Amino acid sequence: SSTLTLKLLSHHLITPPIAHTTIDWSTELSQHFSKLPQQFLPIRTQSLTEAQHILLTGATGFVGAFLLSHMLQHVSGNFKIWCLVRASNSNVAVDRVVQNLKKYALWKDACGWEERLV
């Protein structure tokens, strides 16, 4: 109804805007993981040390970026991460993944990460 619309509009005009803050997404994610029951916690990185190939879906999304970053930083060994990405070729796909990691300030230059992405 028009009354409801006017009421919502007036609320937004009267309510002061929320101050812009920077969010530390890594801390946010860690806090949420700490609240999960044991059976829902992420796989321990030690169990991935023998992996040669890891399949990751959603690497261009929010959660996928943090999963990928965590694997690249904390999983040791010689492995490739296969990311399913819609793209015209593999170079464009890797670029999309890298740009997504940069968007959340998760990308680290000169770490050899790009060579692990397929």
Summarize the topology.
Layout: H1 2-14, H2 25-34, E1 53-57, H3 62-74, E2 80-84, H4 90-103, H5 113-116
Parallel strand pairs: 1-2
Characterization of this structure:
The structure is a single chain. Strand 1, helix 3 (62-74) and strand 2 (80-84) form a beta-alpha-beta unit. The mean pLDDT is 80. It contains five helices and two strands, in the order ααβαβαα. With 118 residues, it is mainly alpha-helical. The longest helix has 14 residues, at 90-103.
Radius of gyration: 20 Å
Q: Identify the strand order in the major beta sheet.
A: 1-2
Cα-to-Cα separation, first versus last residue: 52 Å
Number of helices: 5
In terms of DSSP E residues, the strand content is 5-15%
> Helical proportion?
40-55%
Order of helices and strands: HHEHEHH
Query: Which term fits the overall shape?
Result: elongated
Mean of residue pLDDT values? 80
* Largest β-sheet summary: 2 strands, parallel
Low-confidence stretches: none
Number of strands: 2
Alpha-beta classification: mainly alpha
List keywords for this structure.
118 residues, 46% helix
Put the structure in a nutshell.
The protein is mainly α and 118 residues long. Helix content is 46%, strand content 8%. It has a two-stranded parallel sheet.
